Amino acid sequence: MVDKNYFEDLVGKKIGMLLVLGIQGMSQPDKKGKRETLINCLCDCGNSVLVTAHKLKRGTKQSCGIGHKAKRITEEERIRRKIDAINYHKNYRIENCEDLKRKKTAYLQKLKSEAISRYGGKCACCGETTMEFLTMEHMNGRKNSLVKKTGKSGWMQAKSLGWPEDITVLCYNCNCAKGAYGICPHQKK
What we know:
This protein is about 40% helix and about 15% strand. By secondary structure, it is of the alpha+beta class.
C-alpha cells in the first residue's frame, strides 16, 4: 500500500501532462489480492483520468493517452531536417578530417594484417613477410574469383565473404611478375 501523505504532497503538481488533483481511493483487488491507490489527475487536453500510484510515481503514465501523438511534419520541415543533417555531417568531416583519416588508416592496416595472417602471413611464392610488400593475389584471376576487387576494398570484400579459398598472398614483386609473365621467376627455378 502506498503512503497517502506522499501523494497529498503531490496535489497541484504536474507529472508530464497530468495535474495531480488528489487521491480517488483504492483499485479492485487483482488476482493476487493486491489493491493499489488510485490518483485522480487532469490531463492538459482536459480529460480526467485515474492513474495507479505506482505508474504515477515511476512516471510511466504521463498523459491520458488520447490524441497526444506527435504531429506529422510537413514536407518542407522534412527537407529542412535532411539538409541540416547533411550539413552537420559535412561539417563534422571537415572539422575532424585528420582524426577520421587516422582512424581509417588504423582500421585498414588492422584489416590487412588480419587478412594476411588468415592467408598464411607471408608471400606464397618467395616467403616475404614484410607487411608493406604483401598484396592480394586472385589465384584464378579476378574475373573468376569471388572477390572482384583489389587493395583495401578487396580485403574488405574477402572478409565479408568469409575469407574465400581462391585468394592468396603474394609480395608485390611476385604478384607483378605473375601478372606480366604468367609465372613468377621464383617458380622457374
